[in-house]
């Protein structure tokens, strides 16, 4: 891509001209984006697009992408996530990933590390196909899993697997700010070879005396701790954990184990978490009745009690989705009529013409969805 083209389309004067009513009228019905993306794929009047500038496979089942976003990117706070969209076999697919870089990264680029789900679609595709020059679409940063201002004097990070990404962003951001408080970072992985940011963690440990790194391996004995999270691990990592603000991200067994201890000790208010695994479903599927109708597809099926997203996919439909756990809003569609129930907390919604998240709501009786 020509640097001159990038400069032209990203300048303030160029953006004012290209978004003017005259240009919009002249490029109807396709719009100015359709024409300029042929010479600059990053150009868009509204979409945040990003070009992959570097691809690193830190472990056998992960891929780290460095992205250069266009002028529509407004930045992020450490700990937040973005929705990444790629086109696979002609269909745009969207998933949620947390930047792992400092929010103060000087070149303005974004680092996303994707842990491969063997049963997934997007992560295996990225592992196999991502290369410099690939252009993707990203959303504005979302989420409240962020450090407060002013920062706590003592911080405990606990992560497992790919849950390391938002924690790495927080850790890098704090070190870039020359944070002078106490940081303890307890990370769980199967073995040393499964730690995605092994080299980066070692570098931080050597450079910053106020950062304590504790590695726990569940399938190896050469870490600082061995086995799964427990009270003994917590005390070994930080004996004064009750005085710290704790930030947790990882698979559900780890998160449940940490929450159980913090709840039992009255420390739930000191625990902040980000969840990337499917939460526990609290609503039964045994009492399913009625029909689920997808009005735009002219399709009606017998309700089986699963989520609307699961039933739509089983019926051969391909609605867009991102997280599948109710965090993002990619799968939101309008409910024309009927009652739906949130499978996580049991809340019922009988209002017509209401937007619902397909991934965490199930039909209760006859329901019509605009899909």
Polypeptide structure, described:
This protein has a 6-stranded antiparallel sheet with strand order 4-3-6-1-2-5. The chain has a 6-stranded parallel sheet with strand order 10-9-8-7-11-12, with helices on both faces. The two termini are 38 Å apart. It is built from 10 helices and 18 strands. With 371 residues, it is an alpha/beta fold. The chain has 3 domains: 134 residues, Beta Barrel (Elongation Factor Tu (Ef-tu), domain 3), CATH 2.40.30; 122 residues, 3-Layer(aba) Sandwich (Rossmann fold); 79 residues, Ubiquitin-like (UB roll), CATH 3.10.20.
The major sheet is characterized as: 6 strands, antiparallel
Please give the share of residues in helix. 10-25%
The mean pLDDT is 89
**Low-confidence sequence ranges:** 1-5
Spatial shape:
globular
- How many β strands by DSSP? 18
Number of helices: 10
Task: Give me the Rg, rounded.
Answer: 23 Å
- Which H/E pattern describes the elements? HHHHEEEEEHEEHEHEEHEHEEEHEEEE
The end-to-end distance, rounded to whole angstroms, is 38 Å
Please report the first level of CATH classification, the CATH class of the largest domain: Mainly Beta
Q: What is the CATH T-level topology of the largest domain?
A: Elongation Factor Tu (Ef-tu), domain 3
| Strand ordering within the main sheet | 4-3-6-1-2-5
Assigned CATH architecture of the largest domain: Beta Barrel
- Going by helix content, strand content and strand pairing, the class is alpha/beta
**How many domain regions?**
3
């Amino acid at each position: 891509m020509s640097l001159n083209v990038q400069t032209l389309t990203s300048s303030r004067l160029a953006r004012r001209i290209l978004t003017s009513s005259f240009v919009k009228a002249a490029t109807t019905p396709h719009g100015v984006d359709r024409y300029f993306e042929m010479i600059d794929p990053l150009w868009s009047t509204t979409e945040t697009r990003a070009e992959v500038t570097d691809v690193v496979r830190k472990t056998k089942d992960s891929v780290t992408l460095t992205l250069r976003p266009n002028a529509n990117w407004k930045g992020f706070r450490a700990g937040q996530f973005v929705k990444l969209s790629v086109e696979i076999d002609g269909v745009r697919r969207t998933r949620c990933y947390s930047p792992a870089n400092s929010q103060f990264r000087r070149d303005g680029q974004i680092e996303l590390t994707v842990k491969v789900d063997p049963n997934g679609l997007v992560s295996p595709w990225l592992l196999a196909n991502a290369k410099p020059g690939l252009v993707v679409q990203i959303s504005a940063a979302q989420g409240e899993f962020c450090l407060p201002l002013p920062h706590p004097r003592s911080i405990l990070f606990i992560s497992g697997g790919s849950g390391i990404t938002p924690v790495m962003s927080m850790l890098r951001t704090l070190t870039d700010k020359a944070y002078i408080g106490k940081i303890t970072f307890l990370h769980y992985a199967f073995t040393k070879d499964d730690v995605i940011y092994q080299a980066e963690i070692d570098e931080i440990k050597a450079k910053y005396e106020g950062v304590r790194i504790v590695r726990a391996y569940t399938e190896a004995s050469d870490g600082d701790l061995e086995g799964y999270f427990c009270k003994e691990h917590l005390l070994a990592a930080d004996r004064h954990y009750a005085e710290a603000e704790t930030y947790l991200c990882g698979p559900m067994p780890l998160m449940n184990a940490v929450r159980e201890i913090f709840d039992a000790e009255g420390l739930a208010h000191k625990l902040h978490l980000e969840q990337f695994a499917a939460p526990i479903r609290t609503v039964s599927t045994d009492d399913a009745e009625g029909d689920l109708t997808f009005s735009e597809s002219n399709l009606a099926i017998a309700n089986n009690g699963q989520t609307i997203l699961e039933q739509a996919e089983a019926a051969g439909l391909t609605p867009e989705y991102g997280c599948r756990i109710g965090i993002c809003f990619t799968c939101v569609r309008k409910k024309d009529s009927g009652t739906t129930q949130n499978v996580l907390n049991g809340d019922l919604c009988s209002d017509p013409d209401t937007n619902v998240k397909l991934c965490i709501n199930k039909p209760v009786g006859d329901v019509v969805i605009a899909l």
